[in-house]
Structures are given as structure tokens and as C-alpha cells.
Specification:
405 residues; alpha/beta; globular; four-stranded parallel beta sheet
Amino acid sequence: MPPLISRDEALALGALTDHADIEKLVERAWDARVATFGDSTDLCSLVNAKSGGCAQDCGFCAQSRFAESETPMHAMMEPEQILEHAKAAEAAGAHRFCMVTQGQGLTKRDFQKILDGAKLVAEHTNLKRCASVGHMSVDRAKQLKEAGIQRVHHNVETAESYYPEVSTTVRYEGRLRTIDAVREAGLETCVGGILNLGESDEQRVEMAFELASINPTSVPINLLNPRPGTKFGDRDYLDPWEAVKWIAIFRLILPEALFRLCGGRVENIGDLQPLAVKAGLNGVMMGNFLTTLGNTPEQDRKMFTDLGLNIARHEDNGASPRPDNRSGWLEGETPDVVESYLDTRDEAEAAGLEIKLWDPASQLRFAKREKVIPPRPDGAENRWPGGRDDLIDDELVTSGLPHGL
């Protein structure tokens, strides 16, 4: 489906400031969402399977070794640990589960752990499986598919014209090549970005139309949560009404994409999160994020049910009209171990299932950094330094989490 508005119309809507006008825009976006998806939802949860010590210079990320901030650190989780997080996500009501790692790619050993973890999640839960593991070839994407992964996440992060201010070590063209490889392997694509990195309204519209040309199945929208010591750590939060407005604009530009709101939604939107859902969201990233805390699963589910949306599992697990259910992917039936325990936390825990999603506060080790962060760039000549050999980090924590955390 083509965009429902033009670039000029998107820019005109981006200039709205009156709350009543934004509410009218939200109603228009809600109509577009319901027309395509009805009352279905698509709730996702993630696990930060490998964290910290990233060699890249993405300016929004505390995991970068270029950042002067407390850095969350742990080595690649074992497949059994990934499964434990998946079971907790399912007990909390998630429809899908994403295994996320830092960096441009994985070693052969770490990639095998992702493959083995995906197989366990497919065998022991009814969750749909996603992965976000950096750049990859068609061959690696096919291996993910064979292991039971159905969708691969790889953001463009921002508009191409603004991208050099975001990263110099991870090329925009490389991101597009990975997305092409994922699609060639027969997998669905999850491609989005981050708002409030310093981009202009024109660049926000540019990114939305770039995403429309990519035509991903899923579009995650992140709102910058400025982390002290990162390149963009001095930015203010986005105004909640401004955030809701741009979610609605993106919905009208990408009417068929599954929209989910991810990092920074609690800090930037706060009490307006239900209005953001009405602006066109299919789901949210439930629970906690890569390195920060989020809403409780109960709060997330209530946001959708209060609008009359169905958070229960559908035959295609809430991904209509683009189902990617597991039929034909792996042999055997998957037991539904939590279907009757989703109503209350007490019932789930009585069944021996602890509803505890990824918790950065207790499940990450932190290493303080002593480095001096380069100044925020004002122009192309002062952009963020690149290259893997700019800094040598002797403080990386390479030990994994204890089993069960």
C-alpha cells in the first residue's frame, strides 16, 4: 500500500503544535491502523543476549567503547539462558521474542549460540522468533531461518542525509545490504530508527519515506533516551505531544507496517503512552529494553485492552494480515505452557513461571569508563572519530551471566 500522505503533507502535519490538531491527526492515524489490522496486536519482548564493549561509534549508544558512561557488559548468553528469558516473556503475554546482540556482527561461536537459542525457543514456547545480530550475509540469514528465526531486525537509525552524524564506523549502505540479504533469505524484515537525534523535520520525513521504499514488515520507533557520556547525551527529551504527532505521521506514510514503540517511550512520552498507541501502534516492546527499564507487562497490556484491542494469541499470533506462524518451519507441536496463566501474575507464579522480563538493573554488570568523549560535532569536518584502533579498552568484562539470571 502506498503512503496515505505526500512528503509536503507530512511536513505540514509535522508543523502542528496545537494539541487539538494533533488529536485530530491521531484519529486519522487510528482509522488507518484499524482499517488494516482491526483489533489485532503484536507485542514483543527482547533479551540483551550480548552487551557492552561495542567497537562501533553510534552516538546514541552507551554500549559503544567510544562512550564515557557506565557500560553494561556481559558475554554472549548460553542458549539455555536465552530460553529462560523467552519463557518469562511468554508468561508476561508477549507474542514474539527478539534475541539482540551488540556490534556489527558475531563470531562463529556466538552466532552458533544464537542459532541454538532460537531452536530452543521454537521447541519450548509458542513465541515468534526474531533476531538482531548486526550485519550478515545471505548464508547467515538462511542459517537463522533454518534455526526457526522468522524476522530479522536491522535499523537504518535515521535519514540517510543525517546518518554521518550518527555513526561513521557502521555505514548506511551496509545496513541496506543486510536488509537485502535478510529478504533474499526469505525472512521478514524489521527496520526502524530513532527520533530526536538532532535531525530536522525534513529529515524525519525523509527517513519515513526511506522506510516506505524498504517496505519492512515491522517498524520499531525509538525515542532517544539521552545517556550521559554518549555523543547525544546532552539532548533534552522529546516533547510527548511531538512524539505522538510523529508516530501518527509515520503511520500514515507506512499504512501496512506493523508499528511498535520501543526504547525511550517511558522517558519521552510518559502518561501519553495510551495516546501514542492510538496514533497507530500495533504493539510495544514489552517490559525492559537493552539497557534501561520500562513499563510493567500489566501496564503494557492494559494500554491496548483499554482501546478495545485484542492482546490474546490469534491463529497467526497477532501478525495479521502478514502472518508468519511457525507452520512448516519446524516439525512437532509446541506446547502452550502459559495460555491459562496470563490473567494475573499470581496464577503464573503458582504454575512455577516467574513473570520477570529482561532486567538491566539486576542482570548487567557495569564497567566505568575513564575515557574522554570527543565533542559533539557541529559539521562534517568534526564528525565522530572512526576506526577500531582509535582506543584500546583493557576494561572489557568478558564473563557471562550466572545461569538463570
